[in-house]
């Protein structure tokens, strides 16, 4: 099933790590038109796009949930309990990321501090479509709650009856979100960027989406709105050694492949027999998969790579910088120090990516497309900014003053020097 | 000197906070041409631009400093000592930002962790021009050293003799930077984005610059290179109460105003007499300033605002979200809880912005243009990415498995459920 590559040259690692390049320049023109239209006609424009693209005429994008009680929502009790457990684990892990701040007296009388302060108003985008991504509601809203963001706006496209999936509603209520707006696609991103009467402009936009949403988030940055991270198709890289269980590896690769036909799936193993065994299990397991067609397409451009030397294997993995990295091994911990670039890492034979996708506690909003080399996944810090403070006493300025004046004058900034000397001479 | 505004309406706060809008769309076309040219002709293109724009023909952009000893560099001993003290304070404050990571057992058998891992190769841009910004070398390189970035490339334009300012060289050596490249402007950013033989492509680009550099950094993001933050003209907001010393406030405003004619300078005070007194001192102090012409221009579009109520004053300040916020007061600490949006805060009458610009220990690379609402200034985290890990035992998966399957099936992702059940059934 997977194309086999044996002992590739190091010089090919960059090429082997390349993802398909998406040229979104034509897309951008269309998305810019949507931004212009939202800027001109605000809510009327949003509702027009909703009618045109989601096929439903709404009188307002406001989805009123006043008085709706989570308990009364009609989803299976088992799903409610699963969502509550996921919430609890995500809450615990992101809560542990809180920092009480830093205080350092760098010199007598010079106190430097750093504090994390929450963003005020954030926007979450939850895609509609075939699968109701209620798990993404938890992943994006729980850390916002912990950070203390004052306002959370959630945009999601309406279904055919002008409503949203009950599991999305349930998850939103669990997270205390009261501002749900029925708007999807680039128009939702444009509205959260520019601001309308019903959809306020936000400081930062979080969340996944199709290529229109991705392009709109990229454009939003030009309007001074922050975004969680650039987005691309989801991906997994599994590293398997002789202690792996090929049946599990095949299942993990398929879990990624079913996401979309553009999903990236890579297997790296230190024995050729692993590649063959995994391929055998892929053939068996894929036959019963409901999303078999999608998974087959994804696998068709995926690779199984044999690299015997472990250091070389991790050189490749770090060059690839996968969103998800599974270490399929009984001694997974022994590889940790070799990992330089990855979004989230799954250690051991009993740690499927699904665990992090839903409920282990880690976040599932992660850098794709090699961005794991330079971007973190969503974490508590994504909802805060770090502000520095310095407090200087008269004695402190006596201690530091001459240094400041010397440096300012060497940079030809006499005004900077004067701000010190006017105090020292007072 | 400063235009006085008395008790503005809250509804005017957004308008009063607006910075001049720079349309860089024509600039972008020129910068894109530079990127295309660098992509086509690599080092030859860089050297061509250097000849055309910096007026010097180089045979290579590599600035060889092999064997150069910091002690032998010809700058005043007092400047060397000042730079060393600044280095020490910046090092101490950024070192305290190190995190040992987070480990949480969210459920029995489910261990979730977060670790900070350094970026591998970063690029620093240090502008040339009238003032040698050696302080920026310290601010950008010291945290990179602490983070453990493997490679630091420093680009700076050559002077007329194909050399760089000795204070920049001294600071670079102090920070252990060995890879200095003589390249400036958009062509330096393009080279660090695309990569040439002499200037390697980097993961992330840090540093200030003129509008061409700013536009080039914006463009670099489209090529998958990260940047420290968007940039705009530097700015200060001083909040002064009855315990301020107007002479000091005037000096601080001038220190900012001398940066550039587009600098933003705002005074907010809770008494009108403060505005008048500060204006008097501005008139006196500006007369002897070497960069008087620049400062005068900056002050011409700056404002002094009287807001009597302290909460209202901070509503405005948080809407403005200044890069630098000085609290000119004997009881500065009492205002801290009112501060929601600022890059760096200077507390008390003896804490000029110059302290943070050079040597208190905090970073001087900070969000301008209201971006302090959503971006942190440069800090240790800017040089690292946070990677999550999960380690799950067989027992852990037994505990979490049913939850994962329920959620996966509710999202119609059977492959995700299979990756769990194949393990539970093994």
Q: How are the SSEs ordered, and which strands pair?
A:
The structure is a homodimer of 426-residue chains.
Chain A: E1 3-6, H1 13-16, H2 25-54, E2 62-63, H3 77-95, E3 102-107, E4 110-118, E5 121-125, H4 134-147, E6 151-156, H5 166-174, E7 179-182, H6 185-194, E8 204-206, H7 211-222, E9 226-227, E10 235-240, H8 246-257, E11 264-269, H9 272-286, H10 292-300, E12 303-306, H11 310-320, E13 324-328, E14 344-347, H12 353-358, E15 384-392, H13 394-410, H14 414-424
Parallel strand pairs in A: 1-12, 5-6, 5-8, 6-7, 8-9, 10-11, 10-13, 11-12, 13-14
Antiparallel strand pairs in A: 2-7, 3-4, 4-15
Structural description of this entry:
Two copies of one chain form a homodimer. Chain A is an alpha/beta fold. Chain A has three domains: 147 residues, Nitrogenase molybdenum iron protein domain (Rossmann fold), CATH 3.40.50; 213 residues, Nitrogenase molybdenum iron protein domain (Rossmann fold); 31 residues, no CATH class. Helix content of chain A is 42%, strand content 18%. Chain A has a six-stranded parallel sheet. Chain A has a six-stranded mixed sheet with strand order 2-7-6-5-8-9, sandwiched between helices. In chain A, β6, α5 and β7 form a beta-alpha-beta unit. The model of chain A has no long low-confidence stretch (mean pLDDT 96). The interface between A and B is large, with 131 and 131 residues.
